[in-house]
Amino acid sequence: MANDHLSHPVPPGSSDLGSSDSGSSTTALGSSDSTASLENSPCNTVGTKNTSKASGGSLRILIIRPSALGDVCRTVPALATLQKALPHARIDWLVQKTFAPAIAAHPAVHQTLAFDRKRYRKLLLRPSQWASFGNWLKQLKHNNYDMVFDLQGLARSGFFTKVTGAKTRVGYANAREGGHLGYNHRYQIDPNLHAVDRMLALLQAHGFKPQTDMRLFTPAEDQTWADDYLKQVDINTQPFVILAPTAQWLCKCWPIDRFISLAKRLRDEKK
Fold first, then answer.
1. Of all residues in the chain, what percent carry a pLDDT higher than 70?
2. Which of 42, 204, 244, 246 could crosslink 135 through cysteines, CB 3.0-4.6 Å?
3. Domains in the chain, please, with CATH?
């Protein structure tokens, strides 16, 4: 029987921890060889690390936050919260395949479970993918998670939460699209909270002290490439700014004339 709870206090403010931008680009998932080897796997997994945490007696935890890119990055404080409270647990993250590189190198992530949304979109109309998707779900259940936290709160993520068969399945009592049906620990959290605050409030309601660590980590090979590139363009150790003026959704695009004004201001301030 599910446990429904009233709303709990909002954790310390963290609403300045970034904004969502589903249109930002990501790098390719792993090397060409490793990506190819995962292509036909029912439950694609990348980023396996911290093998000392995967010993037989470790608590197995799954975070479900598949998309979008900005929201995936803003979920890192929730990851840090779980790591701080349960330092010896194995924490996996179910994330959309295209966004997995954003968090795969985080030291708290044991493994990312890459969900290929493009492959399984409009599944009812694509019988050729039914067997593959069924195998993906079997693998998800086979991972035998002890605790699952649905930080997305939608029908699909709630369904994935239920499929895991975990003894403890935590989510929002007011999750949209009936997502709450997948949980047995439900908490009423104000939907108007900032996304970071809302996720931390959910974890706080379940007994975890919120951590606002928003750090993202870069794979060593990518950092090496970036360092080499900065040397090539003669930036090296000089301060620099990166502007990303585009997004997938026009409603998330800042007017281009404001980017121009900002760029000119940054140029003038450097002088």
1. 79
2. 42
3. 3-205 (3.40.50.2000), 220-270 (no CATH)
